[in-house]
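Progress against Task 2.4 (sequence-to-structure conversion) is shown through the following example record, which the project officer requested during the mid-term review.
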Amino acid sequence: MNETRRLAAFCAGVTLDRLPGDVVQKAKACILDYIANVYGSLELDAVSKVVSYVRSLGGPETATALACGFKTGTHQAAFLNGVTAEAIEAQDGLRFGGNHSGTAVIPAALAVAEELGLGGKEVLEGVVAGYEAANRISAAVHPSHTLSGFLPTGTCGTFGAACAAARLMGLDEEGMLNALGNAGYVVPLSMGEQLMGGFTVKIIQGGQAAASGLTASGLARAGITGAPYVLEGSDLNGGFTQITIDGEPALDRITDRLEEHYTLMDVYFKPYTACRHTHGAAQAVLNLVRENIFDPEEIESIDVHTYGIALLAVGKPISEEASFVTAQFSIPYVVSATLLDQELGPKQLTEERVADPALLEFSKKVQVHCDDELNEVYPEKTSSRVEVNMTGGRKLVKQVDIPKGDPRDPMTLDDLAEKVRHFAGERDPGGLERVIERTVELEKVRNIKELTEII
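Structure tokens generated for the chain above:
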């Protein structure tokens, strides 16, 4: 027991000089990836509407609305910067928790650092603390939490954002403990129903977690107390892990090898703008396109064989009424857009592209199947096999077992820098290079404004 207190003690004690070098490098990689996603999300009309809404609220100009050209209040900036990191669905994630910690943790850390005039060293400390909290808590309730109807990015991400902000605020162990306790009280419901229904409010989950985490840590700094056993709960059965899953939580995952193994190292990156469960199919299609010459009009049908969870989560077709959120979670759409456009980036997820009649018609050729052999090796492997059936009996087949971006087939800092350039579109190349350089050497940045104000 005492998982909450032990996690609080760890998060309060995170310092850059005690972190392994590879963990620091991974934290920088996460921030670089985060910036790419902020740029890419600005292609979406839904994001533009959120930007306009936040801008209309006014308020003190204490933090930057990244890449949006204005400043706003700290909470509002964290919210908006979480939305823009989440919306394009190319955010980093943890297979073992089903969550995307970065969209909650990083905007909270950047906003607090900017308000307090802190530098890159403090941001890195906050980011590591925040990822460990969010990842470990999500792992403790995975997969039952998601199957119970919650999105762990919003729920568990709130704890991560609270710990990141509390670390930047310099709270001690008791203060961090209260930040966690308060987070458990203000944590958003974050309904999975919204995602599965394709409703665009889904894109706010990272921002909502970031802002809620700031509230929790700010209240802790002001002296407001929260349950010091908020995660494990008590005999009243009201702890976070008690009320948000059906069954017993794996509480040992919260404290397993603290300070020895950093779950940040298990985080994957996404080269494509869609749910991770679609990436094996997307990568297989791109490989087929690069290795073969054929005309899409020759294609009679496409069969995608994958594992059971993928069929359940992203096997559904897309219709004329579908939103870009539905498209992000549809293998038929992802396969079709990737094949026809020979890429899967921000442009393939715009509202205009998703509504293209020719693309929608082509997607009807794609069928998704659960393959017993591929299902058996899940979750160790997230395999997908794509079979393209051509006129005249020609058949093209490609299988991907470990999609690019997994720690076993990682995206390097150079890969992520290229992702920034690609997702940024026509933005000033010189400015982008300065953003990349300062992120890669973040510990040398004395005031985080040197980065946030040029993104």
